[in-house]
Amino acid sequence: xxxxxxxxxxxxxxxxxxxxxxxxxxxxxxxxxxxxxxxxxxxxxxxxxxxxxxxxxxxxxxxxxxxxxxxxxxxxxxxxxxxxxxxxxxxxxxxxxxxxxxxxxxxxxxxxxxxxxxxxxxxxxxxxxxxxxxxxxxxxxxxxxxxxxxxxxxxxxxxxxxxxxxxxxxxxxxxxxxxxxxxxxxxxxxxxxxxxxxxx
Length: 200
Hints:
Blueprint: H1 3-7, E1 12-15, E2 18-21, E3 46-52, E4 67-73, H2 75-84, E5 92-101, E6 112-125, E7 134-139, E8 146-148, H3 154-162, H4 177-183, H5 188-199
Antiparallel strand pairs: 1-2, 3-4, 4-5, 5-6, 6-7, 7-8
């Protein structure tokens, strides 16, 4: 592979006419104690989607404020997904939480995002570091190191049980779901959820 391809972090190599996953140039970095270093300039990465007031629990508590969840993924991983319909090793997905406001400037209805970040979480794939290939890290801010969320936390089992592709919630990313359908990489658990929802 040429140095030019390496410099641009190309996610795929072509070997004997078949696409194979390559290491991403914008992959994760970790401190000596296992903390994850904050993803630099993640807002310059590929934007996937925004949810508002989403919850995966039927018993979720009502709050007195709304929040936006913005999702970004490192560019090399995105390019690999577009080509293969699944995520390569060293994928980083950033979930950024911001408060929702309805009063400001000329706005008369609906909500817009506040400037302050309320929460930051990363879902990262590192097949040699984590027993389950994927792990979650929680950050106190975009400039601080992230702490590993224990593997027994509910987020792990939820993603395994309901993630559309490789334990990730591609079902909520409108530009990626059609790709996964076309390349037939949707998980059996997601298809089961869809069938049960359609039957209701």
